[in-house]
Design brief:
Elements lengths: L3 E4 L10 H7 L5 E3 L8 H11 L4 E6 L1 H12 L4 E7 L8 H30 L6 H14 L1 H12 L5 H6 L4 E6 L7 H10 L4 E5 L6 H4 L1 H13 L1
Parallel strand pairs: 1-2, 1-3, 3-4, 4-5, 5-6
Helix pairs in contact: 1-10, 2-3, 4-5, 4-6
Length: 228
């Protein structure tokens, strides 16, 4: 059974995928790869590859999806199948990149919790859920401001991966919450245009974190993808 490598979103850890780990680990090895040690997407991808099995299924959410695309660019023959969840294949827009500078400065000055609250409450979830927001904040604070800075810089300088997606021919799942305000449905429709053989799944009543908001729907899509 092909092992599965999971890549979390920015300022998240393995707890992001707790429902998926519980649902999938009974039938295959599930490995969580941290994305905290470098400030370049290319280096983060190389680090995952250095610690991953020779051949594996790869699923990433948000920043995890961005690193997953770079892994496919660097070593497509090692990725048996690919799942991109609530993510973006494009280089960072200038206005988003500009917002990162004051966020990094605030996090460095002890304001990481406030930065995360400003980002999370209006943009992460389709419906208010204080338990999920508390979990997101706990993950972020456990990683800390240095990781926030490294990840922010990696995202700001990331490459466009449209050509990478166009060239990849393994079984692919593109999944997105219907109300994702950070990586909207249109981005996933763009990826589907680039990868016409991929399956596009839109999860209703979910925002940027359908893995936690609607785990049953996500688990069903992942199981189907893994069994293709």
């Amino acid at each position: 059974m092909t092992p599965l490598v999971l890549l979390p979103g920015m300022m998240c850890d393995a707890r992001l995928f707790a429902p998926q780990t519980a649902a999938l680990s009974g039938t295959r090895a599930v490995q969580h790869a941290p994305l905290s040690g470098h400030d370049r997407v290319e280096s983060l991808a190389a680090d995952v590859l250095a610690n991953a099995p020779p051949l594996f299924a790869l699923a990433g959410l948000s920043m995890g999806g961005i690193v997953a695309m770079e892994i496919v660019r660097q070593a497509p023959d090692r990725v048996a199948r690919l799942a991109l969840l609530d993510t973006n294949p494009l280089a960072e827009a200038a206005e988003v990149k500009a917002r990162r500078v004051p966020q990094i400065e605030a996090a460095r000055s002890g304001g990481l919790a406030q930065v995360m609250r400003q980002e999370m409450k209006p943009r992460y979830l389709a419906a208010p859920d204080e338990d999920l927001l508390d979990l997101c904040l706990e993950m972020a604070l456990s990683l800390g401001p240095e990781v926030f800075e490294r990840q922010s810089r990696a995202l700001a300088d990331r490459p466009d991966q449209c050509a990478t997606l166009r060239a990849y021919d393994g079984p692919t799942l593109l999944l997105c919450g219907r109300h994702d305000a950070l990586c909207p449905v249109e981005r996933h429709e763009l990826m589907h245009e680039l990868m016409p053989r991929a399956r596009l799944v839109i999860v209703e009543d979910a925002g940027h974190l359908p893995v936690l908001e609607r785990p049953d729907a996500v688990n069903a899509a992942l199981k189907r993808w893994l069994e293709e």
